[in-house]
Each structure stands twice: as structure tokens, then as C-alpha cells.
């Protein structure tokens, strides 16, 4: 599933994003890391980018949790039948 927040593998490779961070929000991580490097990782400089990335991570986690709940409910329903 490719979303609007997913960068291509070529973009991730050029930005040197570690494999562990290549997820649904990877397109938001690239400008955040650019901003961090440009501003020497000062926490107050890249707040908008960081909050956007964290919101995307949260939404992705909630989406996965809802999907897992549905799967568990389906499995429980199948066991009852």
C-alpha cells in the first residue's frame, strides 16, 4: 500500500534514510532530517516538520491497531462458528 506520505526507494536511498525508518511516513522524514541538519538539531527550529511526522506516525499506529482488532474479532467469530 503506497500512501501520499511514502517516499520512493530511490528518494530514501539518496536521503540516506536507514531501512528501519522506511515506513508509511518516510516522505515526511526526509524534509525533517534536512531541516534538522541545516539547523544543527535545535529542537525549536523544525517543530512543524516534527509534528507532521509524529502525527503521521500516530495515525499509522492507530490504523494498524484498528486492523489488528478487526482481524482478532474475525478470528474469534470463526472460532465460535
From TrEMBL:
Q: Name one GO cellular component term.
A: mitochondrial inner membrane
Q: Does the keyword field hold Cell membrane?
A: no
Q: Which Pfam families match?
A: NDUF_B7 (PF05676)
* Compartmental location: Mitochondrion inner membrane; Mitochondrion intermembrane space
Give the matching InterPro entries: NDUB7 (IPR008698)
Q: What's its membrane topology?
A: Peripheral membrane protein
What does the UniProt keyword field contain?
A: Disulfide bond, Electron transport, Membrane, Mitochondrion, Mitochondrion inner membrane, Respiratory chain, Transport
Q: What job does this protein perform?
A: Accessory subunit of the mitochondrial membrane respiratory chain NADH dehydrogenase (Complex I), that is believed not to be involved in catalysis. Complex I functions in the transfer of electrons from NADH to the respiratory chain. The immediate electron acceptor for the enzyme is believed to be ubiquinone.
> What family classification does the UniProt entry report for this protein?
Belongs to the complex I NDUFB7 subunit family.
Task: Spell out the protein name for this chain.
Answer: NADH dehydrogenase [ubiquinone] 1 beta subcomplex subunit 7
The lineage, from the top, is: Eukaryota, Fungi, Dikarya, Basidiomycota, Agaricomycotina
Amino acid at each position: 500500500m503506497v500512501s501520499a506520505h511514502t517516499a520512493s526507494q530511490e528518494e530514501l536511498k539518496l536521503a540516506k534514510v536507514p531501512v528501519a525508518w522506511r515506513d508509511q511516513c518516510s516522505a515526511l522524514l526526509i524534509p525533517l532530517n534536512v531541516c534538522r541538519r541545516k539547523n544543527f538539531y535545535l529542537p525549536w527550529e523544525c517543530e512543524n516538520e516534527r509534528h507532521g511526522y509524529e502525527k503521521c506516525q500516530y495515525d499509522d499506529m492507530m490504523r494498524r491497531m484498528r486492523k489488528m482488532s478487526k482481524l482478532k474479532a474475525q478470528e474469534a467469530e470463526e472460532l465460535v462458528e
